[in-house]
Amino acid sequence: QVQVVESGGGLVQAGESLRLSCAASGPTFDSNDMAWFRQAPGKEREFVAFINWSGGKTEYADSVKGRFAVARDNAKSMMYLRMNSLKPEDAAFYYCAVRISYSSAPYDYTRIEEYDYWGRGTQVTVAS
Fold first, then answer.
1. 3-state SS, one letter per residue, for the chain
2. If pLDDT is split at 50, 70 and 90, which confidence band does 27 have?
3. Which among 63, 111, 112 has a CA at the least distance from the CA of 88?
4. How many CB atoms are located within 10 Å of the residue 65 CB?
5. What is the predicted pLDDT for the residue at 31?
6. Phi/psi class of residue 104: alpha, beta or left (left: φ > 0; alpha: ψ in -120 to 50)?
7. How far apart are CA 103 and CA 31, in angstroms?
């Protein structure tokens, strides 16, 4: 069983920055692709950022590109999301997702169905 725990959420002013962290248990952290998703009230969960198992590949939703940066530290079994220039529309619960299933075939990393484990989320509130 894999446990996923997000932290770092909170209240910030528009234009400020925040860093979220995700700690994932399990012996295969350095083999797992991971992603950040977010969900605002009344909306579907949406893709935010992706990072592959090694950290060598990152992808971002257009809405956050240039403002957010995802990174990981496999030695610490941690993934991070640095959020800069936060906007009110960034306010949401942010979720860490872990893909355990291995496949050498390409897959759509923006789909929630591609991930096997999820954290409970951390709230990000952006005030103007």
1. CCCEEEECCEEEECCCCEEEEEEECCCCHHHCEEEEEEECCCCCCEEEEEECCCCCCEEECCCCCCCEEEEEEHHHCEEEEEECCCCHHHCEEEEEEEECCCCCCCCCCCCHHHCCEECCCEEEEEEC
2. confident
3. 63
4. 10
5. 84
6. alpha
7. 11
Amino acid at 33: D
- The per-residue pLDDT for range 74-115, each reduced to its tens digit, is 989 999 999 999 999 999 999 999 998 877 788 999 999 999
Residue positions counted in the chain = 128
For residue range 55-85, list pLDDT tens digits in order. 999 999 999 999 999 999 998 999 999 999 9
